[in-house]
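If I may wish for something, please walk me through the protein I am sending here so I can picture the backbone:
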Amino acid sequence: MFYDEKFMAQTTLKSRSRPTYRPRVARQVKEKVIEVILFLAAFSSVATTVAILYILIKESVLFFQTVSIIDFLTGTKWTPLFVNPQYGILPLLSGTLMSAGVALAVAIPLGTIAAIYLSEFASSKVREFAKPALELLAAIPTVVYGYFALLYITPFLQNFFPKLPGFNILAAGLVMGLMIIPFISSISEDAMSAVPVGLREGSYAMGATKLQTAIKVVFPAAISGISSSYILGTSRAVGETMIVAIAAGLRPNLTWNPFEQAATITAFIVQVSLGDLPHGSIAYQTIFAAGLTLVLMTLLLNIIGHFLAKRYREIY
């Protein structure tokens, strides 16, 4: 009896000390599968970007084999569908930059003020109601914004500017600015809310007011996220299509006057894409050349925003 109990105790001890390989292997396999899934999810976005750039560059190279890149960048007439085609991108660039400039002149101040109010001054109840209501502006289809600019904003502006044409950059830019406000205010408010409370309390202890704390302490501390919202809003304005196509017109016009009509790069791409152009023709390849120009503009804006945010963080 004594030997049986001793044998059973030794057997139990050996079984407990024996390494459990199966659960460990199963756990390692699960972690590896999850790692692969996460890698594929991250790689898909990179692969999509690379594929888009490959297509744009491939078609643009064919285009620039026929059209001089110097004429493309410095030409003042854009008539690729006419009998005597001209391929100067400057009219489309001026329309794109002007409409985006008007939009940002509206969206950045209003979006930043809204973010400061929601983050530093609004009560929790007001914030819970105001922030979702503000973000609803981003859920409205852009075609609705376009017709709102054409049928309501333009007639309203014509009361003050009687010579304002039916299609103009100003109305399109104003409405586009209203559409961008939620992007800037929401991201900026999140960045400002993430600033540690200790910075605010230290500012209050030094005798600063709430407004001074918000502008001189919280805003610089959250500049990385705020600059990201500005870059996102700028990219959104540069890449907008339906509002400018409906309210600003489709005539390429080299102008820096917001009271005139003009065409943007995206509006031209939509206009040509709806046509019946043969694949491989010069007129068809202008879509990709204009698209590549738009991508490079957005990339340049992101690089500038990154260095400005980095420089601002070093100062503060």
Observations:
- The chain has a mean pLDDT of 84.
- The chain has two domains: 20-65, 73-315.
- The CA atoms of residues 72 and 88 lie 5 Å apart.
- The chain has 13 helices and no strands.
